[in-house]
Amino acid sequence: MPFRQALFSCLLFLLPFLASAQAPDSSYVAKMNAPGVKMISVDGKYKVWTQKIGEGKIKLLLLHGGPGNTHEYFENFPEHLAKEGVEIYYYDQLNSYHSDKTEDKSVWNIPRFVEEIEQVRQGLGLEKFYLLGHSWGGMLALEYAAKYPQHLKGLITSDIGYKATVFNKNRYSQYADIIRRHAAKDGKTVPGLDTMGLRTLSAHITPAVQTEFRSLHMMRLKPEPPIFTRSQAHIIRTYAAIMLPTMVSWDFESRLASIKPPTLVIGSKYDFVPVEDIAYMQKRIPSCQAYICPEGSHYAMWDDPQHYFPALIKFLQKTERKG
Q1: CA distances from 206 to 14, 17, 176, 177, 240 (A)
Q2: Which of 5, 42, 158, 257 is the most buried (most CB within 10 A)?
Q3: Are 167 and 272 in contact (CB under 8 A)?
Q4: What digits encode the pLDDT tens for the residues 133-148?
Q5: 3-state helix, strand, coil in the chain (%, to 5)
Q6: pLDDT of 1 over the 70 cut
């Protein structure tokens, strides 16, 4: 089976381990009525949720991961950035918890999401702003920067590489290591684990294996912060399943050199996105800095904030000084 097809099979198997969205709760009501909230029309028929936090010269729009995650795991950004004069904009993408939902599967493509971001930019009146995308949001941030560089003062990608088959192959290797350790504890071996392919791998990914992967490579902070737990509970996993075929084939490598805005690529030592990907991106993007969070995993803004935010602030300040 080709690697891409096998990867799809494996990731599809993992979806049940993701949190499933709850019905609207008290936090939903509070968010919809919070100060700074603005619902923005996109595609002429939907509305997406945004919220402005603080006032400042530096405008920062945040793109969450998923697809189907929410802005909520960015809620620790103000405590680190407000004193630096950063005006933050949260935004839930279409089909995320606080925004409109649709069963129309035609909305699930990257070019449409890029246009959604542009409509959000227009609705917020942002010009010469900074765009930070995390994970899936990082894919969108790169795509947006390639099409609409004139609106950006700076680009930040967080815990995302440049080619899905590359960083997902590393994720497979990390799962294989965990499966091997779990088998050894039971006095067993899994012959051919490194060569059996991703299709067979799914049979060995138990809830215990998935839990260990999460604690090693997704969120190393224990206990998980309540804000993060709330965000995870609001993920709508069905949308991630719809987008999987597109996500596993995503390849931005040939366009890295086309990125024009000053760029910071943030990686993490324990993430499934290999640090080599981050180094490669730094070399290929013309005006690019890179930073590896030495204690972080996929959500480094939570499990390594002492390194994540100073690196982000340094980039913002340096870019501002250059004008």
Answers
A1: 10, 10, 12, 13, 20
A2: 158
A3: yes
A4: 999 999 999 999 999 9
A5: 50, 15, 30
A6: no
Domain count within the chain = 1
- Show the domain range for 40: 25-162+227-318
Segment 242-263 mean pLDDT: 92
**Is 102:73 a contact under the CB 8 Å cutoff?**
no
Catalytic residues: 135, 271, 298
Task: Kindly state the tokens that stand for 127.
Answer: 């010009």
Q: Is residue 290 part of a domain?
A: yes
Nearest CA to 143 out of 167, 122, 118 is that of: 118
118, 110 Cβ separation under 8 angstroms? no
Residue 175 included in any domain? no
